Amino acid sequence: MRTTKIHQLIASMAALLLLAASCVKDNGSYGNKAINVVTISGIAATYQAELGKNFSITPNLNYSLGEEHDDFKYEWHVMRATSPQISLGVLSTEKDLNVTVEPNGLIGKAGSYTLMYCVTNLNTGIRYDYPFTVVVSDKMLTGCIVLHETADNSFDVDMIANFNDTLNHHANLLALYQSALPRQGRKALDIVCYKDAYSPSLSLIPSKDEYHYAVWILTDQSTDRVTADDYEYKPEFNISNLQLGESSTLVAEKMFSTSYNTTKYQGNYVLSQGNLYFYTHFSNVDVFYGAPVNTHQEDATPYSIAPYIFMAPSAGAVVFNKDEHAFELHDASTAGMQAHAAVTTPLGNGWSDPNWEPVYIGNRTDGSSYYLIYGFAIVKDGVTNQYQFLQMSAMGGMSATVNLLSQTAFPTGTDLSNMRFYAFHPTLPYLFFATEDKVYRVNVNAMNSVDDVTASVLLPGQKISLLKSTAVRFPTTNNQNKMLMVATYDPTGQAGQNAQLAFYNVEDGTGDLTPAKYPATPTADGFQQEMKWTGLGKVIGADYKQPTK
After folding, report:
1. Residue ranges in 45-172 assigned as alpha helix (H)
2. Of the N and C termini of the chain, which has fewer Cβ atoms inside 10 Å?
């Protein structure tokens, strides 16, 4: 679809190079014969339009000899804003403008456009022009992006979008934008968004300072990016084009973004076939996917690594070496980047135990604080079968530092062997973990009991497909970064329509879960909406998309 539109644009540009931005001036005569002068009015200097909505203008036209005196042609051109100002295409050929602002159309992206209304007298060949500006807003651009299964053995993405201080659900955007991303028969794994110097541009004609923004969609067969505004896909957007080597076939089973809310640090770690790979663009230093980092010597045989990491954007990543039963650091600090090697370093005393078996490692906070990030880990003592909870911090800058803040045992009898999901509140001492059928909570400071909180989020017969703290990679507005996100689905319901996504507040002092509302405090007119949406397919992954400059 995109190729056809580009061909149409090229044809239009070739045919309309003579278009000018100024109104035609005429003295009312054509030799000794009076001509029909057209005066255009009633068009404002600037209009606001919304993607997906109708947009109309009814101009006022005055004909000096009357409209019926001649034949006229009417065109609404979309102009290139920079010099030379040429037409990029015709939006309408009607006297009055009445169009839908279609995604991927001539004005189908968020931004400012220069339009030209042209009235041509076909009998005299004289054209009368009127320039104006249209600012298009995209209500589906920013918000929580949700990857979910569909009824046709495929997948799509929905948006819970922030627009005009409300949250709105927009369904199946890959289908809406007619994305060429391969989907049929592929198993969706996750979706990850962040600022990335090597991602596809937001613009058809990118400028040198274009804000590139990555939207990665992981499947069992490939790992691909799409453009952040209209989900365009090309084969060169595949992750293997960022991998060193002649035979690049990288497929990410998991991806961990390093950028969060920072502006300089851009990249990710990916797990693929038991190895961890690293990629970033940091302070104009590029590191592409090369040798696995889960090794102590470049090109050496990698050690067995746990499939989870704790990421600290300015420091690197804490990983677990399953062969040595020890935590290690991949140093991606300023110093580490200047002398980058695809290796990790053991963290030393207190960070290893021959009986430790990894259960989970994750982030507690995001990268809004560039230098100090908090994370956690759960390990099992293979001899006693007791579970340990570790809290840690990482600090970056010129060099990376990782600290083990505490280590406490879970209550006696705790069994985490079947848990699939973990989420740690960013400021309160509550850890949530879940199977498909049950959700539990523990106060990690007291560690005196594990509480079953399933009834707060799950109806009988439903299953959980996602449990996530919005502390990681969600903005701070309206306390959105202090909530628990839970996706549930009905296995007996209609595929593609059988799931729900809901957000919950965690109450201080008790850890109780209550339905979250937006905004957190009602507006002056009392507006507040519950943050719960139905009608999705089974949710596989979610992230916050914010592709703004």
Report:
1. none
2. C
DSSP string, 359-382: EEEEESS-SSSSSEEEEEEEEEET
Residue identified by tokens 């190729």 is 3
Going by C-alpha positions, the residue among 381, 383, 445, 391 that lies closest to residue 416 is: 381
- Residue 145 CA to residue 159 CA, distance in Å, equals 5
Fold for domain 2-137? Answer: Immunoglobulin-like (2.60.40)
Spell out the long-range contacts of 288-294 with Cβ–Cβ below 8 A and sequence spacing 24 or more.
288/242, 288/243, 288/244, 289/239, 289/242, 289/243, 289/244, 289/250, 290/243, 290/244, 290/245, 290/342, 291/342, 292/342, 293/269, 293/330, 293/342, 293/343, 293/344, 294/319, 294/321, 294/344
Q: Looking at the predicted structure, is the pLDDT value of residue 526 above 50? A: yes
Residue indicated by tokens 């009898």? 413
Q: Is 37 helix (H, G, I), strand (E, B) or coil?
A: coil
Say if residue 149 is exposed, middle or buried (CB neighbours under 10 Å; 0-12, 13-18, 19+).
buried
Domain boundaries, given as residue ranges, for the chain: 2-137, 140-214+421-544, 238-259+278-409
Among 391, 440, 396, residue whose Cα is nearest residue 416: 440
| Entry pTM | 0.82
The residue among 57, 140, 56 whose CA lies nearest residue 104 is 140
Sole residue written with tokens 């049950």: 438
Is pLDDT above 50 for 106? yes
Q: How many CA atoms lie within 13 A of 427 on its CB side?
A: 11
Q: Virtual CA dihedral for 195, 199, 202, 206, nearest 10 degrees? A: 110
Task: Quick: pLDDT tens for 471-487.
Answer: 766 665 555 568 999 99
Q: CA 150: distance to chain centroid?
A: 20
Chain centre to alpha carbon of residue 451: 34
How many C-beta atoms lie closer than 10 Å to residue 83's C-beta?
7
Contact 410, 416 (CB under 8 A): yes
Q: How many CA atoms lie within 13 A of 176 on its CB side?
A: 17
Q: What is the pLDDT of residue 476?
A: 56
Q: What are phi and psi of 13, to 5 degrees?
A: -65, -40
Half-sphere exposure of 201 (CA within 13 A, CB side): 8
Judge contact between 160 and 534, C-beta under 8 A: no
Cα separation, 271 vs 269, whole angstroms: 7
Q: What is the DSSP string of 527-548?
A: --EE-EEEEE--EEEEEEE---
Longest Cα–Cα distance in the chain: 107
Distances (CA, A) of 541 to 144, 180, 190: 10, 20, 5
